[in-house]
Write a structure and sequence with these properties.
This protein is of the alpha+beta class and 479 residues long. The chain folds into 2 domains: 176 residues, Beta-grasp domain (Ubiquitin-like (UB roll)), CATH 3.10.20; 235 residues, Enolase-like, domain 1, CATH 3.30.390. The strands form 5 sheets. It has a 5-stranded antiparallel beta sheet. The chain has a 4-stranded antiparallel beta sheet with strand order 14-15-16-17. Strands 2-1-3 form a 3-stranded antiparallel beta sheet. Strand 9 and strand 10 form a beta hairpin. Helix 2 packs across helix 5, helix 14 runs antiparallel to helix 15 and helix 15 packs antiparallel against helix 16.
């Protein structure tokens, strides 16, 4: 167990590892959660088991791992020097060249090993590609790294002593104080504690996974005197499965939130894996993404199309207050919202799928994996007897906030689901917004793509699948 004192609230885990603990095996590459060179694995007690999560240490606040287990590339070999299967497989498959990215890949492989191989599961090529999407390599071309991921299971097994680790984590939990008024980093464990802390410290910067705030610290050199971390609040880490909706706590990770959404709507799987690399999804939370309100944040267009609402909570005059609103009403301008200084975003409520629903979401970005959208379009139509009875459309990347395409919805509602209707709606959609040109796309490109995506939606509804990347395989391409 490692104990450090006088750690500033915005000091990153990577800084603590490299500069304070001299664990220099963990590398700094992009310093913004994109390249994966800084990947480490966190372990957290969940009942009688350990949950393993690969995360980016460069944008993770050091205080957020208080009380958790942590592995770096320097920790996983045996005491006699025998390499862990994640390391040995990389050697055997010649999966490292310059070596700078290798520690990050090894730790992502270690996370896969714990979560899949140790559970008796097979690592397929597709799974390896999905779970390594947050790691970039500029030398090998990835084939040998994917080979290593699949080869780990053939090596002599290595297991973490979870019984001993659970005892240590329990000792840490009992000895660690979370909520202290004079602390610069406040990490409450319950919802009442969180609301009390927010009422007492309205000026504190709220964080969860820090996948955005970490960028503010690293790239904009922002500092905060006091930080309020919601990621440990037990009530907000749950997904509640109501008969009519999913209630997703604001502190639920993107990985777990998308798992719940995909369980209800399996067609969202590809979009969920493209949201970001796995280490970002393991740290970031759905509540943080929604509250941040970036116009190119991918979850909001989807949630708008699904008819999601948010619940804001506060403690005033000794009692707890809450207010609900449609998600799109949360935003007032670029990264501006209606959340009061003493409020927190507590829940995102998402209606469940219906039998007549036709739902798709499309992300357009320069890089397929681990990239930010230029345009995101989510469509959810209720079609009965060939007629559009209801239309709900969310759009990102075309305005100062994530928005609902109200005019296009009106153009579709009540109309027959025909090509003529779609062509009219395409023209409406292209004229409904006035996007800007920036480094990701020109305004004209965004406008054109919006209509094209609606046409793609129509074609898919008619059974055309060859235009989907999901249906594309290397074996078929080689024929």
């Amino acid at each position: 167990m490692v104990s450090l004192r006088n750690v500033p609230p915005t000091r990153t885990l990577l800084e603590v590892l490299r500069e304070d603990l001299h664990c220099t095996g963990t590398k700094e590459g992009c310093n913004e959660g994109d390249c994966g060179a800084c990947t480490v694995v966190l372990g957290e007690a969940q009942g009688e088991h350990i949950k393993y999560s690969a995360v980016n240490s460069c944008i993770r606040m050091a205080h957020s791992v208080n009380g958790l287990a942590l592995w770096t590339a320097e920790d996983i070999a045996a005491q006699d020097g025998t390499l862990h299967p994640a390391q040995q497989a990389m050697v055997a498959q010649h999966a490292s060249q310059c070596g700078f990215c290798t520690p990050g890949f090894v730790m992502s492989l270690f996370g896969m090993y714990q979560n899949h191989v140790c559970q008796g599961q097979t690592i397929s090529r597709e799974l390896a590609q999905e779970e390594l999407s947050g790691n970039l390599c500029r030398c090998t071309g990835y084939r040998s790294i994917l080979d290593a991921a699949q080869a780990m299971a053939q090596l002599p097994p290595v297991r973490v002593d979870e019984s001993d680790l659970l005892l240590k984590l329990n000792t840490l939990r009992q000895s660690t104080r979370r909520l202290e008024a004079h602390f610069s980093y406040i990490s409450p464990l319950t919802l009442p504690e969180l609301l009390e802390a927010r009422a007492d410290h309205p000026q504190a910067q709220i964080v969860a996974g820090c996948t955005d705030v970490g960028l503010w610290v690293n790239k904009m050199h922002m500092q905060f005197e006091q930080v309020l971390d919601v990621s440990r609040v037990a009530e907000l880490r749950r997904v509640e499965d109501d008969p009519h909706h999913l209630a997703i706590g604001a502190a639920v990770t993107l990985t777990d939130a998308f798992a719940a959404l995909v369980a209800d709507r399996p067609q969202l799987h590809t979009f969920a894996t493209r949201f970001a690399g796995l280490p970002v999804r393991n740290s970031g939370t759905l509540g943080g993404n929604v509250a941040n309100g970036s116009p190119i944040g991918d979850s909001m267009p989807l949630l708008i199309a699904l008819g999601a609402s948010v619940v804001l909570m506060s403690q005033r005059a000794g009692s707890i207050h809450h207010r609900d609103m449609p998600l799109e009403q949360l935003y007032t301008g670029y990264r501006k919202n209606v959340i009061a200084a003493d409020e927190v975003l507590a829940w995102i409520k998402v209606p469940k799928a219906t039998p007549t629903e036709l739902c798709r979401v499309y992300k357009i970005s320069k890089r397929f994996d681990d990239d930010i959208s230029a345009v995101c379009l989510a469509l959810n139509l209720q079609i009965t007897d060939g007629r559009v009875m209801h239309a709900s459309i969310g759009v990102g990347g075309v305005a100062a906030t994530p928005v609902r395409a109200s005019q296009t919805e009106a153009a579709l509602r009540g109309q027959p689901w025909t090509l003529e209707t779609v062509k009219t709606a395409m023209a409406t959609l292209r004229g409904e917004f006035s996007p800007i040109s920036d480094m990701r796309a020109s305004a004209s490109y965004r406008v054109q793509v919006l209509g094209n995506l609606l046409q793609r939606f129509w074609l898919e509804s008619q059974g055309l699948q060859s235009i989907n990347l999901e249906s594309f395989t290397l074996k078929e391409a080689a024929l």
